[in-house]
TrEMBL record:
Gene: nadK
Primary localisation category: cytoplasm
Primary enzyme class: transferase
Organism of provenance: Pyrodictium occultum
UniProt name for this protein: NAD kinase
Binding site for NAD(+): D65, G66, R70, N134, E135, D164, T175, A176, Y177, C178, Y179, S180
């Protein structure tokens, strides 16, 4: 039962801030210890918590997919249970809109929910570690082409991959950028990743579904300009020739509170029900 609960919302949407204020009032009445993320604590005039450093047991997330992905980058390896309030235009993992989600807060505080876990990638590059719910993408900049070598579990999969780059996607992320780039949709029950070349010059080259526990190792062998490593469309870093990226599906899962029946299968061509 989460008691210390943070509230995270888009600071640039009035409706999101109003819902954050309402969530704070409701949580307080329910006996929880709510606090706003520091990005909205000032405008709302309440206690703040820095989710980059401070531990909480739960987070009320108000927004859509982008809001959720930005939050997960702040949390890093920590994985409090998440109560999702759908407000954004794209909200693939969000079940219910504001009114229904606000009414669910009592269930959230009292622990009347099941936890749905979504595995994340551990991504290592340049001596640092990141975590990805959807994907890690290595992309050439501008009109330039990158030459990559990719190994799966120690075996070479792509010797000299020339093109716009490569996507390594989780089952959750296989419905996002991976799918748009022509990659497969992975069933959420699979312990697997999708390895998807982006616009390869050799059109015979296709995608690979690889075991989640086997590391995907990528080496930037040729590029005239730095390539960009993008984690979940949020975190970006530049990589020069010779850079090595490793990713494996063994990161701490994102934990989402669910209140209704149904499975984890969500498909990009199927409209969500609410």
């Amino acid at each position: 039962m989460p008691r210390r609960v943070a509230i995270y919302a888009r600071p640039d949407r009035v409706e999101a801030l109003e819902l954050a204020r309402e969530a704070y009032r409701r949580l307080l009445k329910l006996g929880a210890e709510p606090a706003y993320d520091i990005s909205i604590a000032g405008p709302l005039g309440g206690p703040g918590v820095d989710l980059r450093f401070d531990d909480v047991e739960g987070v009320v997330v108000i927004g859509g997919d982008g809001t959720l992905l930005r939050l997960l980058q702040l949390l890093g390896a920590r994985n409090p249970v998440l109560h999702l309030v759908r407000l954004g235009r794209r909200a693939f993992l969000f079940d219910e809109g504001p009114r229904a989600s606000m009414e669910r807060l009592a269930d959230f505080v009292e622990g009347r929910f099941r936890v749905e876990e979504h595995p994340r990638l551990i991504v290592r590059a340049r001596g640092g570690v990141s975590y990805a719910l959807n994907e890690a993408a290595v992309l050439a900049l501008g009109s330039k082409v990158a030459g990559l070598r990719v190994e799966l579990g120690g075996e070479t999969a792509y010797e000299d991959l020339e093109g716009d780059g490569l996507i390594i996607a989780t089952p959750t992320g296989s419905t996002a950028y991976c799918y748009s780039a022509g990659g497969p949709v992975l069933h959420p029950g699979l312990d697997a990743v999708a390895v998807v070349p982006v616009n390869p010059l050799d059109r015979r080259i296709g995608s690979i579904v690889a075991p989640g526990g086997e590391p995907v190792r990528l080496v930037v062998e040729r590029t005239t300009r730095p390539v960009k490593l993008i984690i979940d469309g949020v975190r970006e870093s530049l990589l020069a020739r010779g850079a090595v990226i490793e990713a494996v599906l063994r990161g701490p899962p994102a934990r989402i509170a669910r209140y209704r029946g149904g499975g984890k299968l969500r498909l990009p061509w199927r409209r969500p029900t609410c």
